[in-house]
């Protein structure tokens, strides 16, 4: 069947369609499969209507500089970040003391870090610390219990920024920061509506991180890292909830939590800049890949992801303080 075929003369217009990709592409495989499918359906007496799938809408229509607007209630239109040093001056034992209560009679269960019984000494075999391996502590907010020795080891293997995250329930103690490399975040309003948000304009975010050399907080200190796909354009509706998400993303940016250095899940490349568990919409429309609009759940989902990193409306007040 030729790709130009629309509908069978005997078939009504509202017939099932067979989406076919790359009908005009260089590969003959998909058109051939479409033809075979059409022949089989026709042989079975079924109406046939071949259609082209909708195209990916990666970017909005062109926008001139004069059409770009600043975002009311948010100062500036650009945020730069440099490498922030971890807080110094306190030992891991002093940091953890703020978040723990000692447990004199440990429960009859395993420490979920070393998997040894809490009534027995810690099974951690790494570098020794000043904490005795048989001491047990309970985190004050969530109540989960661990060997102190294991918690100190976990803290030393992390960012050592004065915060702690419960390995069982992910409750955050203190202010969590990440290891995002230096870069720039721009944000402004463009005069186009996102699919599913026809009642408002669009917030466009532009992230730009250059390649560089990994620091001591990264997987391979001293080794260079790549930064593929920058600048990266991301989109939010310019609604009340969309602006709330943007304000929280600015906090995440300042805390170096939006990107990290690691191994790309799409290309397998190591020592490269990757997203860090806060999903962004990098396509303006169509949402054929899940990275665009419309998506009625996206704003609520990203608010939950930000909260999992310790970034909530309370964080906005903390930043002002």
What is this structure, in a nutshell?
With 321 residues, this protein is an alpha+beta fold. The protein has six helices and 15 strands.
3D structure, described in words:
This is E3 ubiquitin-protein ligase. By secondary structure, the chain is an alpha+beta fold. It has 2 domains: 69-85 and 177-318, 2-Layer Sandwich (Enolase-like, domain 1), CATH 3.30.390.130; 92-173, Zinc/RING finger domain, C3HC4 (zinc finger) (Herpes Virus-1, 2-Layer Sandwich), CATH 3.30.40. It contains 6 helices and 15 strands. It has a 4-stranded antiparallel beta sheet with strand order 3-9-10-13, covered by helices on one side. The longest helix is centred in the N-terminal third of the chain and has 15 residues, at 29-43. The radius of gyration is 26 Å and the shape is globular. The model is unreliable at 1-13 and 20-29 (pLDDT under 50).
């Amino acid at each position: 069947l030729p790709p130009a075929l629309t509908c069978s003369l005997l078939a009504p217009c509202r017939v099932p369609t067979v989406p076919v990709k790359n009908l005009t592409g260089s590969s003959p495989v998909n058109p051939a499969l479409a033809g075979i499918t059409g022949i089989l359906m026709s042989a079975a007496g079924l109406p046939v209507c071949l259609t082209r799938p909708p195209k990916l809408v990666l970017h909005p229509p062109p926008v001139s500089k004069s059409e770009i607007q600043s975002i009311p209630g948010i100062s500036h239109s650009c945020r730069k970040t440099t490498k922030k040093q971890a807080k110094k001056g306190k030992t891991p034992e002093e940091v953890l003391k703020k978040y723990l209560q000692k447990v004199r009679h440990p429960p009859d269960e395993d420490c979920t870090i070393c998997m040894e019984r809490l009534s027995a000494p810690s099974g951690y075999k790494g570098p020794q610390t000043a904490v005795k391996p048989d001491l047990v502590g309970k985190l004050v907010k969530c109540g989960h219990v661990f060997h102190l020795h294991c918690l100190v080891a976990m803290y030393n293997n992390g960012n050592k920024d004065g915060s702690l995250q419960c390995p069982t329930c992910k409750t955050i103690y203190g202010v969590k920061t990440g290891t995002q490399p230096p870069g720039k975040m721009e944000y402004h309003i463009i005069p186009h509506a996102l699919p599913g948000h026809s009642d408002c304009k669009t917030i466009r975010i532009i992230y730009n991180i250059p390649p560089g050399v990994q620091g001591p907080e990264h997987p391979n200190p001293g080794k260079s890292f790549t930064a593929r796909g920058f600048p990266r354009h991301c989109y939010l509706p310019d609604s009340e909830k969309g602006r709330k998400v943007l304000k929280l993303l600015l906090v995440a940016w300042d805390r170096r939590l939006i990107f990290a250095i690691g191994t790309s899940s799409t290309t397998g490349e190591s020592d490269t800049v990757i997203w860090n568990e806060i999903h962004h919409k990098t396509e303006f429309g169509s949402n054929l890949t899940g990275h665009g609009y419309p998506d009625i759940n996206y704003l609520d989902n990203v608010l939950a992801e930000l909260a999992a990193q310790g970034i909530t409306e309370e964080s906005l007040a903390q930043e002002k303080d």
